[in-house]
Design a protein that fits this description.
Helices cover 39% and strands 17% of the residues. By secondary structure, the protein is α/β, with parallel strands linked by helices. The chain has a single domain (5-169), classed as Rossmann fold (3-Layer(aba) Sandwich). It comes from Trema orientale (Charcoal tree).
């Protein structure tokens, strides 16, 4: 969006981090951890590697976290495949902490929509609502009974919502 705003009709965030131009993207991760209890993180781990001179933040998502926070509405087979594919990954925290990463002229000029997935009033829904408000997203679609992996737990509803958003912008 920052590099080619004129080529994007609408940016659609689906249970995703939605940045803004007022604060660095790293602030979204900080807010997530501020709003999330330690108990609900279960076996989600954040560590710093590569020594004190060049620290690299690494995230590891464990099977309990996946089962309770990402794949709770999916088929058991989807969860098992996800557990087999998960690997520790870097968060690029140095890049995400840069104040001038996104500009109002480019990134801010792209229309944004957000698809909220609601399952029993969880903390994740509260965070999704905060993201929408924080990112100045004007258009919101809601899918009930879906988890973070809505493309697996409710693909038909996701397709309908995406189609509806795109049709509004064409």
């Amino acid at each position: 969006m920052e590099s080619f705003p004129e080529k994007i009709l609408v940016a659609i965030y689906v249970t995703a981090l939605a940045p803004n131009t007022r604060s660095p993207p790293a602030s979204l991760l900080q807010e997530f951890f501020n709003r999330t209890s330690t108990e609900s993180l279960m076996d989600f781990q954040v560590s710093v590697n590569n020594g004190p001179e060049k620290p690299k933040t690494v995230v590891s998502v464990g099977p309990k976290y996946l089962a309770n926070n990402a794949y709770q509405c999916c088929q058991p087979e989807d969860l098992e495949l996800a557990k087999m594919m998960v690997r520790p990954s870097g968060m690029f925290s140095e890049d995400l902490a840069k104040e001038s990463l996104l500009t109002e002229e480019k990134f801010g000029s792209v229309q944004r929509a957000f698809v909220v997935c609601e399952k029993d009033g969880s903390m994740d829904e509260d965070f999704q609502r905060w993201l929408i408000e924080n990112s100045q997203t004007k258009e919101v679609e809601v899918i009930l009974g879906a988890d973070h992996m809505v493309m697996l737990s409710n693909p038909h509803e996701l397709r309908l919502r995406l189609q509806k958003i795109v049709e509004k912008h064409c």
